Amino acid sequence: MLELQTEQQAKPAVKKRKWLDSEGRWGLLLVSPYLIHFLVFVVGTSVASLYFSFSDYDILNPPKWTGLDNYEKLFEDPLFYRSLWNTAYFTILYVPAKTFLALLLAVALNQKLKGLKFFRMVHFLPVISSWTVIAYVADAVFNQRIGFANAFLSKLGIAPQNWLIDEFWVIPVLVLIAIWKSVGYMMIIFLAGLQGISSDMYEAASIDGANAWQKFWRVTVPMISGTTFLVIILNTIYSFQNFEQIFVMTGGSTEAGSTGGANNASLVLMLFMFRQAFSFFKMGYASAIAWVLFLILLAITLIQFKLQKKWVHYD
Amino acid sequence: MQKRFPLNKIVGYLFVIASALIMLVPFLTTVFNSLKTYKQYMQFPPEWLPNPAQWSNYTTVWEQANFSSYTINSLIVAILSVIGALLSSSMIAFAFARLRFPFRDTLFMIVLGTMMIPGIVTIVPQFIIFKNLGLLDTLAPLWILEWLGQPFAIFLMRQAFLNIPKDYEEAAKLDGCNPFQIYWRVFLPMCKPSLATLAVFTFMGKWNEILAPVIYLISDENFTLPIGILSLSGQYKTEDQLLVAGALISLIPILIVFLFAEKYFVEGSKTSGLK
């Protein structure tokens, strides 16, 4: 650093030229950490992962090329279809409900209600908690023995349910908890979008005699469709990669093999992959699952981008 | 027309208050559960309030398990991640925002592109890299990547650097500063709010992380808080109300960070929506 400085001062005539050159050097030097990151942990790992997905690899022995074996096995594996369905089911319940609720909350808070900061904070409480904490909070409600949900049902004379252990209930209850945990976060994104809508739009609608409901559907929803699109994309990606919640809540131990719920009712793709990789050390098979999961996600995202032209308004 | 306005507000309040209660009541129930005796905790139908409150549950779980070591590990991971993110991502972002160098725009497109690529395909090879480096069952894999720059952090800091007027740069250049000195002495101090946002986000993400610790950590003494508590429920037959107390202990630091830095958390949430 010091040397460079004296060099520049010594040759003022070529200073401009030197500065340009050294600027380029400095630029490359300063971004070099990311270059390493990109080459090793993005390009390197992706290539390796693709290679593993065509190999038999148990970590102890070097990977053995087996061609399409892993993929063929995958498409014959009933657990793959089970986890694919579970992931899709989770997403179908999760994304629309959460998006709609977050938007409603943001619209309500955007009316300049008093105590905005307090309400925002309350909705952030689950957002900032780890899934380990949330697991105990959910337990207070949905534990089949001691939870409030069953106490409430028994008052109504309905038999207690097993919630997170029951094959029928597990995904809907997981979705409910997932929405509860992060709706506050999406609410903030919507709130930022809503604050970008000019009040002229609402005044014009009022003059035309629109009621609150009409204003919501005719002004708010179209004006915020760009944000809605983004929220849907983010949540779909999140939903397909949801691992931590499923891992913590349907198994509840660090023993990887024990998770996945009753009769694999909550075995999602990420958990399926994790189990193959880190419980059974089938790294090749796990890599094939990862690539299939990635391609499905990519396809869904591309379809969503295509569909956006039909309903997202930009102006 | 005039009458409709207050009605909207009333409906808004009702909705938000109902929602706030749905958020708060399970948390309160959990706090009360952590203060019960085992007998009261297991009783059905449950009683809401602990009677009497067992404050000793908190000290018991702290002493019984390896809690202080879990906490120290979590702090090491979170603090090293924050330092790494602040230093490297701001440095990288400064170069992208303010310096001209070969392939700059292509590289920045790559940064944005990697933000879209989900991490799933890289988990297995990443595990193998860290295993070959002999870093399995150490905390290093949990924080080291933050020192090599993360796309979201680079994006966030670049926006901040772009907003600084060019005059500052030129004045510093005339004073004979090299680009690193301009970054370090002039630009970095001007971006404190963005740095704070990045720090809060990194801290929260790392404090709560589960996937990486589950993959990389093997021995109990290396566990971070979230998986330390998870392992307690699996390994020992600790009484459940103690585990609830343990989980709530792990929430305290993040709650403190949040209460002090709520502003930055909101900013970061908005920014993450803009990508």
Q: What does this protein look like?
A:
The complex is a heterodimer of chains A (315) and B (275). Chain A has 14 helices and 2 strands. With 315 residues, chain A is mostly helical. In chain A, helix 4 runs parallel beside helix 8 (170-194). With 275 residues, chain B is mainly α. Chain B is 75% helix and 0% strand. Chain B contains 14 helices and no strands. The two termini of chain B are 39 Å apart. The chains are: A mainly alpha (315), B mainly alpha (275).
Task: Give a summary of the structure in a few sentences.
The complex is a heterodimer of chains A (315) and B (275). By secondary structure, chain A is an all-alpha fold.
| CATH topology grouping of the largest domain in chain B | MetI-like fold
Share of residues in strands of chain B: under 5%
The N- to C-terminal Cα distance of chain A equals 49 Å
- Provide the helix percentage of chain A: over 70%
Class inferred from helices and paired strands of chain B: mainly alpha
CATH-wise, what's the superfamily of the largest domain in chain B? MetI-like
Task: Tell me, briefly, the overall form of chain B.
Answer: globular
Mean pLDDT of chain B: 90
The chain-level structural class of chain A is: mainly alpha
Extended strand count of chain B: 0
- Number of helical elements of chain A: 14
How many domains of chain B? The number is 2
Rg result of chain A? 26 Å
Subunit arrangement of the protein: heterodimer
Mean pLDDT of chain A comes to 87
Low-pLDDT ranges of chain B = none
CATH-derived architecture of the largest domain in chain B: Orthogonal Bundle
Low-confidence stretches of chain A: 1-15, 252-258
Protein name (chain B): Carbohydrate ABC transporter permease
Subcellular location (chain B): Cell membrane
InterPro entries (chain B): MetI-like, MetI-like_sf
Domain ABC transmembrane type-1 (chain B): 71-261
